[in-house]
UniProtKB/TrEMBL annotation:
Keywords: Hydrolase
Name under which the protein is recorded: alpha-L-rhamnosidase
Residues of the Alpha-L-rhamnosidase C-terminal domain: 666-738
Bacterial alpha-L-rhamnosidase N-terminal domain location: 38-176
Pfam families to which the protein is assigned, alphabetical: Bac_rhamnosid, Bac_rhamnosid6H, Bac_rhamnosid_C, Bac_rhamnosid_N
Segments forming domain Alpha-L-rhamnosidase six-hairpin glycosidase: 309-664
Source superkingdom: Bacteria
Length: 745
């Protein structure tokens, strides 16, 4: 069956001839060709307009949920291939239930639904091979039938309603279907992994709130849903409302904005099992109506995200830092649900490009995200091409269908956000060494830097178009997160320089010499313009705040001497802030690295380990189990930030994990894919030990160190074929080969 794709199939996209509401079911009987021996192989290829669940004789065809996920549907609709050989028997029945999902459900924070289409549909191809070589194909066409289901409402933001009475009384699957006009060339196999159930979490506490409502604490802010078995009178209802926090002892739903995040289950009168698999929620707490305290204690939370293999580990002697790292891991899980989103709970859940641009290095250490992000980058390239080189704020670009936010002008390329087109592919190259991915994304990378060139001012800096800038600077007003201390032109021009140097390196690597020269020359002109426009004679950078010095240092805009001077100013500003965070979205991922590069390691540690607000550890001291969107998403008195935009599960500010992996743990690539590795731990602060490890394409790398009475001991293990360089402060570098090494030897 290799080589056959859905492009070759005669399958048609079908929909109920009559609108059936939420989650209709499709059905066909499989009449196996006789006289050809046993079935030796059977593959079901399937996709849908909406999210689907396929079953053969009631058994799921795979472990996936919420398939085919959310891609740029106008350009790419993904399909899955399932080996169903063991499920087929003579007279088997194939059924597919299709819910609204991203295709027809609510999307975005500006309101609206069904932006891609108003009809749900399924397209499937079942290829069966027999012992004698005979091939039989069953496809979706007008011979299928449709009917209603027990799902009477489903929406990703608002939740799902299941009426168990309809499991026996719903109309039979005898209604006709019709064919939808659909171009099969949009079908593409998944590049990345499907979404699956990952874990089960039991309640850690069940109690009654001050108003008498039953509340459940699952002990962890997670993404997924709750499932349970219940009995009760027919027609009686169980209602579950989900939220990330409590406020004044009750469920804190204000951060959800108008997302209802409520599942309803109507009993049949017998024993009913409920699992709402056509929605998902970001939550730690659940408010329960219709169950007793004892019954509520039996509920279990199902953790759902894309099937990603954990690759990187980190632990140290500071338990608060360990919890911070665990929070980064959980925020990655919760927001890597089919695509990298900003948040998983409110009426948004969009693939913001800027969040991933800064977080990709941390993600690529924690999990094997190569295929996952390659899939998303394919959507980015498709959306960008359709927009004449513009990389949208979000991928897939749902905002183009919605009223434009009044606080933003018409969008064009935007620093950090649009730079994801360049930064993310290069991050994956460094992490995994996949030249194929760079080759696929290179046209997108080149198109981005060329488009921004048209947006530069006559002086050569990028200061004439809208910028998010140093978004969520802690000194910005809660209702004006773009009003940062850092000059937006400084931020944008620095980011553009980084994209140019990266695009030039990519072009050279791939053999595009003319492009490499073009981008390299433009980078030098941009660097010169940055100095002329923004750097004063005494080395002060315009707006004189931590973010501008951070970016100039880390992105390589300064000479060695100038970088040292900028580092001194940066360290002074950090000290003046009381080692509380003073950077926003742009500066935060890189400030500890800037301090480290310029000889201020202890300042970096003091900044990382500060506990007062704003800081990385303040949320940890407040009981956070994921990374917050704002430094003060919850105020010290336990109330929620008054701003309209407040999430308790955003990974962007957790990008400091990359510095923890490289500098505290000491593991960084010296060549793509870690074929050659840097072992360079830099102990500091009050830490006395650290352990880190990374599963690379070449095998497992391990580094551990202890610091006792001023004596440092390091152990490093490299897999076969990998070489490394041990670099410790005050000592000459040591070449390492495969195996385990101890220092001092």
């Amino acid at each position: 069956m290799k080589g056959f794709t859905m492009h070759d199939s005669t399958a048609r996209m079908i929909t109920p001839a009559t609108e059936l509401g939420s989650a209709p079911c499709f059905r066909t009987e499989i009449d196996l060709d006789t006289g050809h021996g046993d079935v030796v192989a059977a593959t079901l290829r399937i996709s849908s307009l909406g999210v689907h669940e396929a079953r053969i004789d009631g058994q799921p065809v795979g472990d996936d949920v919420l398939s085919p996920g959310w891609s740029s549907y106008e350009h790419r609709l993904r399909y899955l291939s399932h080996d169903v050989t063991g499920l087929l028997t003579a007279g088997s029945v194939l059924t597919v239930q299709v819910g609204n999902g991203w295709y027809r459900g609510r999307l975005g924070f500006m309101g609206g639904r069904a932006f891609y289409g108003d009809r749900l549909g399924v397209i499937a191809d079942l290829e069966i091979r027999f012992a004698d070589g005979h091939r039989q194909v069953v496809v979706t066409d007008e011979s299928w039938t449709a009917g209603g289901s027990d799902v009477i409402a489903d929406d990703l933001y608002d939740g799902q309603t299941i009426d168990a009475r309809r499991r026996t009384t719903a109309p039979g699957w005898s209604l006709p279907v019709r064919v939808l006009d659909f171009d099969r060339r949009r079908l593409t196999p998944y590049i990345g992994p499907a979404v699956t159930r990952q874990d089960l979490v039991a309640p850690s506490k069940v109690w009654e709130s001050p108003t008498g409502r039953i509340l459940i604490d699952f002990g962890q802010n997670l993404v997924g849903w709750v499932r349970f078995t219940t009995t009760g009178p027919a027609g009686s209802e169980v209602r579950l409302r989900h939220a990330e926090v409590l406020e004044a002892g009750e469920l804190g739903v204000r951060p959800l904005r108008d997302a209802q995040a409520t599942d309803r289950f109507i009993r049949s009168g017998g024993v009913d099992f409920f699992e709402p698999t056509m929605t998902f929620h970001g939550f730690r707490y659940v408010e329960v109506t219709g169950l007793s305290l004892a019954e509520a204690d039996q509920l279990e939370a199902v953790v759902v995200h894309s099937q990603l293999r954990r690759t990187g580990e980190f632990a140290c002697s500071d338990e608060l830092l360990n919890q911070l790292h665990r929070n980064v891991v959980w925020s990655t899980k919760g927001n890597f649900l089919d695509l990298p989103t900003d948040c998983p709970q409110r009426n948004e859940r969009l693939g913001w490009t800027g969040d991933l641009a800064v977080f990709a290095p941390s993600a690529a250490y924690l999990f094997d995200v190569e295929a996952f992000l390659a899939d998303w980058l394919a959507d980015l390239a498709a959306e960008q091409q359709a927009a004449d080189g513009l990389v949208p704020f979000v991928i897939p670009d749902i905002l183009k269908f919605q009223p434009h936010p009044p606080e933003f002008p018409d969008p064009d390329s935007t620093a950090f956000w649009s730079d994801a087109a360049v930064w993310v592919p290069w991050t994956l190259w460094e992490a995994y060494g996949s030249r194929d991915l760079l080759e696929r994304q290179y046209p997108s990378m080149a198109a981005h830097v060329r488009r921004v060139r048209t947006l530069l001012s006559p002086s050569g800096v990028w200061d004439g178009s809208f910028q998010f800038g140093d978004w969520l600077d802690p000194d910005a007003p809660p209702d004006a997160p773009a009003k940062a201390k850092a000059d937006p032109g400084v931020v944008a021009t620095a980011a553009y320089y980084r994209s140019l140097t990266t695009a030039a390196a990519t072009a050279a690597l791939l053999g595009f010499a003319e492009d490499a020269a073009e981008f390299g020359a433009l980078a030098e002109r941009t660097r010169a313009a940055f100095h002329a426009e923004y750097v004063a004679a005494d080395g002060t950078i315009r707006s004189d705040c931590t973010t501008v010095y951070t970016l100039a240092i880390v992105f390589g805009l300064l000479s060695t001497a100038a970088a040292d001077s900028a580092g001194q100013r940066l360290a002074a500003l950090v000290a003046a802030s009381g080692y509380r965070v003073s950077t926003g979205f742009a500066g935060t991922p890189y400030i500890t690295e800037a301090l480290t590069r310029t000889g201020h390691l202890e300042d970096a540690y003091r900044l990382l380990t500060e506990r007062s607000c704003p800081s990385w550890l303040y949320p940890v001291t407040m009981g956070a189990t994921t990374i917050w969107e704002r430094w003060d998403s919850m105020l010290p008195d336990g109330s929620v930030n008054p701003g309209e935009m407040t999430s308790f599960n955003h990974y962007a500010l957790g990008a400091v994990a990359d510095w923890m992996h490289r500098t505290v743990g000491g593991i960084a690539p010296l060549s793509p894919g870690y074929a050659r590795v840097s072992i360079a731990p830099r102990p500091g602060g009050a830490l006395t030990w650290c352990r880190s490890s990374l599963e690379t394409r070449h095998g497992r790398i391990e580094v551990s160190w202890t610091l006792t009475g001023g004596t440092l001991k390091v152990t490093a293990t490299l897999p076969p074929g990998v070489t490394g360089l041990l670099s410790l402060t005050g000592h000459p570098p040591v070449e390492l080969t495969e195996g385990t090494h101890h220092w001092p030897a």
